[in-house]
Amino acid sequence: MTVLGIEPPPVVPRRARRRGTVTRRALRVLGVVLLAVPLLAALVGPFFAPSTAAGGVPLQAASPEHLLGTDVLGRDLLGLLLQGGTTVVTLTAAALLLAYLVAMPIGLVVAARGRIVETVTIGLLDVLLALPSLLVLMVLAATGRRSVVWLVLAVAFVQLPYVVRLVRGAAAAPACLAALETMTMTGEPWWRVRIVETGRRVLPPTIVDATTRVCGVVGLLSSANFLGVGLDPLVVDWAVVVDQNMTALFLRPSVVLLPAGLLVALCAGTNLLVDDLLERRS
Amino acid sequence: MTTRAGVRIGVALLQLVVVCVGVFVLTTFLPGDTAEVVLGPLATVDQIDTLRGQLGLDRPVGERFLDWAGGLLHGDLGTSLATGRPVVDDMGDRLSVTVLLAVLAVVVLVPLAVALGCYGGRRPGSPADRIITATTTVAQAVPDFALGLLLVALFALQLGWLPATAAGTVGLSGLTVAMLVLPVAVLVSNQLSRLARQVRIGVVEADAAEHVVHLRRLGLDERTVVLRHVLPGGVVPSVQQFARTVDGLLGGVIVVEALFALPGVGSGFVQAVQTRDLPVVQGYAVLFALTTVVVNLAADLVSAKLVPQAVRL
């Protein structure tokens, strides 16, 4: 419909929109490439990695024995790159898995048990939101609680408030409730309706949410490792390697930039693909 | 509205109490003997005994907590084990650097996010919009320290335009603008995406709103339509997102200060953690939690005032 015969200007011309789709495809390919390199290094790399025993000549240039040279501790850089991603990937997966395993039942029960339980639980979780994530890891490190277990527990713990809120929200979605009301009327027990069936319906949005948290968790874990408050310095991990080699940034930038670059590629690739996934879903 | 604001302030106070108790419990009940954990395996029996006295470990836990909490209320956070100075003095010296860094980051961040959000929001789906969104999301996804290192490699090592770190400076003295460019860039690029996205969504919605479409039909010039009607509608809902951004900046400050050797509270906190200086760790943890709680509270109250229907206090 027009007023006074004046058409409102179209927001984006059709040709620009088509170019936008081409750009989107290009970004998707870039995302796949960026993610593939660090992921392959992390999952397959350890099987081909040369030894990373310390004690060689520090900061050696590339040679047939050490294809990418050595770091400040005299370890083979290629070996460090191929072995250092395993911790990043496994710890991220473990922390996210733990967070969702704990948060899913809490979220489902909270959604099922009415307003009082909901208000109290969400209120308690909101109190947790007052803690900046890195702060929790730093206080734990300062008090001698430094191990893989503490790291995974703490990272999972700081995700809880967000995930419980998401699961509760998804479980209360109208489409979800309409389908379940029928089951309740046919006399199914409440746990079957509210936990098992609702849980199955809540799973897809929860998995999508988990993918959006990957980068945050990788960032948190690697920041903690870089600050020396995460993994033990003896563990081979990209962020720990960056931290240990910071003094060599000017002498041989590659020992710092290559592991940092792999972390950048991992996060950037994941994010581009997750963004694409979210857009397709919406 | 007033009752809801009261409840929200009550929740904030509760958050503070819980955080203080949490920090005390975590720093009091260490795995093993506190003095031994702090001093490490090479400490002598005498050193351990002295530290036990300093930390008051021979007194009951309840009494120590009341002492510590009472001190907090009076602004007394105890004495550093490493330097022997009051924790508050050490914090005061460092606070100016962090505040300067945070203010600069916000001053760059807000106009940039509004500009990018508006530009993309006025052309949704166009290549420019997609590239802006993709670049800012990637910058946000990359860990602060890794992005910082890449920038140092490019601008300090390769091009030699900027200093790599601010090592050697104490407080604000000796700090130059050039030293702050890269730290501010890292902080901004990490927070830009969320804020620019929020503005973009607001602008897309405001741009398609009935009254805006009507104003265009009436022939009002585009500049006035955008500045007077689209922009305010797009920016106001972003206030709450801005608070989350400040929240993120606080976490970013810790990493960025450590990376660029800036003498602020973030690097002070990292040092205290590395030397296991418990009174200082307690002080910084409370400071960071207090700032987070206050910023979130302020944002919730402001956005409840501006867009009452969007916020459930």
Helix and strand topology:
The complex is a heterodimer of chains A (282) and B (313).
Chain A lengths: L13 H30 L1 H4 L28 H7 L1 H28 L1 H15 L4 H10 L5 H24 L2 H12 L4 H37 L11 H7 L9 H28 L1
Chain B lengths: L1 H27 L5 H6 L5 H11 L5 H13 L13 H36 L4 H15 L2 H15 L18 H32 L1 H8 L4 H14 L3 H21 L5 H10 L3 H29 L7
Helix pairs in contact in B: 1-13, 5-6, 5-8, 5-11, 6-8, 7-8, 7-11, 8-10, 8-11, 11-12, 11-13, 12-13
Question: What would you note in describing this structure?
Answer:
The complex is a heterodimer of chains A (about 280) and B (about 325). Chain A is mainly α and about 280 residues long. Chain A has two domains: about 40-85 and about 235-280, no CATH class; about 85-215, no CATH class. Chain A has helices spanning about 15-45, 45-50, 75-85, 85-110, 115-130, 135-140, 150-170, 175-185, 190-225, 240-245, 255-280. The longest helix of chain A is centred in the last third of the chain and has 37 residues, at about 190-225. By secondary structure, chain B is mainly alpha-helical. In chain B, about 75% of the residues lie in helices and about 0% in strands. The radius of gyration of chain B is 24 Å and the shape is globular. The N and C termini of chain B lie close together (about 10 Å). In chain B, about 45% of the residues are buried. The model of chain B has no long low-confidence stretch (mean pLDDT about 80). Chains A and B meet through α1, α5, α6, α9 and α11 of A and α1, α6, α7, α9 and α11 of B.
Feature tags:
heterodimer; A: 282 residues; mainly alpha; 11 helices; globular; disordered N terminus; B: 313 residues; MetI-like fold; 76% helix; transport (chain B); cell membrane (chain B); MetI-like_sf (chain B); transmembrane (chain B)
